[in-house]
Prior knowledge:
Blueprint: E1 5-8, E2 13-16, E3 24-29, H1 40-58, E4 62-67, H2 74-83, H3 87-104, H4 120-132, E5 136-138, E6 144-146, H5 160-166, E7 188-193, E8 210-212, H6 214-226, E9 232-236, H7 240-255, E10 262-266, E11 269-271, E12 274-275, H8 286-291, H9 296-304, E13 312-314, H10 316-340, H11 344-352, H12 365-372, H13 377-394, H14 398-415, H15 433-447, H16 451-463, E14 466-470, E15 475-479
Parallel strand pairs: 3-4, 3-9, 9-10, 11-13
Antiparallel strand pairs: 1-2, 5-6, 6-7, 7-8, 11-12, 14-15
Helix pairs in contact: 1-14, 2-3, 4-6, 4-7, 6-7, 9-10, 10-14, 11-14, 12-13, 15-16
Zinc ion (ZN) binds near residues 218, 235 and 243.
Amino acid sequence: MTEVTFHNTLTRKNEPIEPRNGNVVGLYCCGPTVYAQAHIGNFRTFLLQDVMRRAIQVAGYKVIHVRNLTDVDDKTIKRAIEEDKPLTEVTEHWTEVFHKDCERFNMLPPQIEPKATEHVQEQIDMVQSLIDKGHAYKTDDGSVYFRVSSFDEYGKLSRVKERELTTDTSSSGPIDSDEYERDSMADFVMWKSRKPADGDVYWDSPWGEGRPGWHLECSAMSMKYLGRNLDIHSGGVDLTFPHHENEIAQSECSCGHEFFKHWIHTAHLMVEGEKMSKSLGNMFTVDDIEAKGFAPVVLRYALTSGHYRQTINFTMDSLHAAQSALQRLKKFSDERLAEAGLKRSALLKAISKGQHNAAPWAAFEDAWNSLSHDLNIPAALGGIFTAIKGLKISEPSADETSQATIAFHKLIFALGYDLDSVVTEKPSEEAPEAIKELAKKRWDAKQSKDWAAADQLRDALQTEGWKILDQKDGYEIERI
Ligand code: AMP
Ligand code: ZN
């Protein structure tokens, strides 16, 4: 096993993963709310979690991946009522769509995918244990709330107490007022008493008819399936507070020990510089992007090639850049496999089974170091393209070639690119705007005799798959 580190939101430090149970890593990811097709922002998060899992596997660990399905909440119930259908019909339909989308993206299915509605008893048990221990109380309407003041460590993940001191919570600050009701503003609901708006969606409980609050399902289901393996818990950055903070409070108070060790949060995706929203019409799905002529593998590349802790801006240009980068990866893979007489699918299968875990990284050492240290995908991609260039120049021995072929495909497995689905026909010769801008900056740098900057820009263009042909009074941009 080699070291894999991730930034831990809990400690604010980059830390190696240290499974509680030998070489088995428990990875719990908050899954989709199944009331509509997941958008590309959701998929940025799910895809990055897929890369996390794959990278941990490539490092030599076994991963138990659990991703829940939120199949009962305000949104799912609202949708079922609007469509005048039973809740399960609506959620099963969107679950199926979600699974198909995951397959199109070449995502590894989690081994366990629990549904909230199939774990109501476990959630009731957790609420009861919290009432018994004095951490929760029932209100007159039959709801049950968690008493935040009963847990001294509340706020340790999101540092919400520190934020409360400096933020005006009466304005539209970071705190969601819906989560604040009852005895204290901070107390949050674990069991919601039945309301007319819920229609026929309710369960019996010791406190009367109702349904579990959203935070509860992830606490109950992660403890059930990863009891001995509470290693990594992940979600989008918006889930840090209140969702994950509340999960920690419920879980640690009910079980009396530490919940997950490592908390990993992914930054959001913006579209053309704007937050995604229905009103702006920019909540794209994989279908929308495919209709524009880009295969899911291209979208996968575009959604995951930025650093997971940085917000990324999705643009059409990023799809063109992704397409050309993938074509170069595929070309390298095709050439190397042909030389070695190997089949891509067989090699990737062997890698997925861990058969090449101990193989040397050879020319791809830097790329793997980047990927295994806080999942630095952009640096890993830079390392891959640099290594490819180096191998072309250095005329490696047969041994080096075969090591490099395996190492390269271990990275391709970790990044999850299905190179078979990359279209190889020659891409458009017209450079996208971003490339034209880079080329202009390089020309300006050259004119002002800033040779270092000009060289750096030329390399950046090369990484994107473009070369510059200088002429007397200008330049041309050509595909490599
Ligand atoms: P939901 O289905 O709303 O529960 O969200 C599923 C996952 O997508 C959660 O981990 C969210 O944090 C994440 N998510 C939501 N919006 C975005 C976005 N714009 N960019 C990245 N991740 C997101
Ligand atoms: Zn969750």
